[in-house]
Amino acid sequence: MRLHYLLLLPVCAFLNVQAQTQPWQGKFEPIDNMIAPPNAYRTASGAPGREYWQQRADYKIKASIDEKTNVLSGEETITYHNNSPDDLSYLWLQLEQNVNKKGNPDFGDARGGVSDGMNSRQMQFLTRAIDFPAGYSIKYIKDASGNMLKALVNNTMMKVILNTPLKSGESLTFSLGWSYPITDRSMFSLSREGYEYFPTDDNTIYLIAHWFPRMAVYNDTEGWQNQQFRRLGEFALEFGDYDVEITVPEDHIVAATGELQNSESVLTKTQRQRLDQAKKSFDKPVLIITQEEAAANKRNKSSKTKTWKFHAENVRDFAFASSRKFIWDAQAVKLPTNTVMAMSYFPEEGLPVWAEESTKAIKNALEVYSEATFDYPYPVAISVNTSNIGMEFPMISFNGGRPKDGEMSDRAKQGMIGTIVHEVGHNWFPMIVSSDERKWMWMDEGLNTFIHQRTVEERYPEFSYTTPKSIVPFMSGDKNILRPIMTTSDNELLTQFGNNFYQKPTVGLQMLRESIIGKELFDQAFKEYANRWKYKHPNPGDLFRTLEDATATDLDWFFRGWFFTVDHVDMELSNVKWYKVFEENLNIEDQQKKTSVKIEGKNSAENPQDFSNGPEVITMTDTPDNAYGGFLSRLDETEMRKQLHNKNIYEVTIKNVGGLVMPVTIEWMYTDGTTEIEKLPADIWRLNEYEVTKTFLKDKEVSKVNLDPNFEFADTDATNNSFPKTESQSDFDRFKEKSKK
Question: Residue 332: phi, psi to the nearest 5?
Answer without folding.
Answer: -85, 140
